[in-house]
Amino acid sequence: MRHKLHALSAVVLTSLVFGLAGCGNDAKPAASAAASAEQPASAVASAAAPAAPASQAAAVRNEMIKPIPVAEVKDPAMVELGKQLFFDPRLSRSGGMSCNSCHNLSMGGSDNLAASIGDRWQKGGINSPTVLNSSLNIAQFWDGRAKDLKEQAGGPIANPAEMAFTHDLAVAMLETIPGYKAEFSKVFKKDKIDIDQVTTALAAFEETLVTPNSRFDKWLLGEDAALTTDELKGYELFKSAGCVACHNGPNVGGASFQKMGVVEPYKTAHTAQGRMDVTKSDQDRFLFKVPTLRNVELTYPYFHDGAAMTLTDAVDTMGKLQLGRTFTPEENGQIVAFLKTLTGDQPKFELPQLPVSSDSTPRPDPFAK
């Protein structure tokens, strides 16, 4: 998840955010000083995409958006274990929720809800970001409180409003399942399972969830016929309006934190304050991680509060709030047409057969009070 560089000052330029659903290249957008200062080198490194082959790099058009590289699987056994954990609802208190519940890989890695449904039908605290291409982000969560996918993976399991388990209970449950015991031992060469192994495996699987070969990527690689005239006009408008200042790189976003509501305040009843919730610094109020625009047509509704139900609504709102610009219906339609070309190949794999519980595996009681 924008402006002609005319009436807005340089300060506005560095604050631009398109805010729909950011990884920078040679022309990197500026993040807030507070946000940048808190990001460890490992977080920035995790946002960098693997280098493209020399033959491909030479063919890429000179644009601020770069093609997504195909995922490189370094440890297939760990990825397979992570896939099992991603789909296993036994990691939740109720036995009915898995990572895939809120990051549905059949729905663009999101759940298409303004707020996810948590344990005991609790309303989630924020719009669930897509897990697709999340390894290309500078940090995880809207407020960037997790530096990488491994750190993020442990959060929902223990969040009482989400999967509502604890790390200790999750590990104890896995220890009672012979199939998991064997797989963890094979992958990590240890006798005991721990939460660090769980989050490492989950992150390894999530790192494979990239979506290359979008029509726009094909155009970037020299295939002129990949885009229509309207889609190209939309991209040119996306650039000239200033959207690309924040939405650039392989992930078309995810590389910085920017203010939601640059030209005029964003009005919402949602209580999230963005980076300020992490740094406790007032200067970070309403600074949110710039969302990826990859697969954005699949990941509605938009913004941290899920207030924009359609891409048309999102483009209209961002034009006014971030750029001080009202797009005509034709311009809006062209930008939306371009954004839809960012949908890439969705992850394809066999659903995992989960290891069978043993007699000692705790049976969940989803209706317990």
Automatic annotation (TrEMBL):
Binding site for heme c 2: 243, 246-247, 318
Cofactor annotation remark: Binds 2 heme groups.
GO CC annotation terms, alphabetical: periplasmic space
Entries under Pfam families matching the protein: CCP_MauG (PF03150), Cytochrom_C (PF00034)
Chaperone in keyword set: no
tRNA processing in keyword set: no
Residues reported in the UniProt entry to bind heme c 1: 99, 102-103
Location relative to the cell: Periplasm
Name the record gives this protein: Cytochrome c peroxidase
Signal sequence bounds: 1-23
Organism classification: Bacteria, Pseudomonadati, Pseudomonadota, Betaproteobacteria, Burkholderiales
Alphabetized InterPro entries for the sequence: Cyt_c-like_dom, Cyt_c-like_dom_sf, Cytochrome_c_Peroxidase/MauG, Di-haem_cyt_c_peroxidsae, MauG/Cytc_peroxidase
Record GO terms (molecular function): cytochrome-c peroxidase activity; electron transfer activity; heme binding; metal ion binding
Transmembrane feature ranges: none
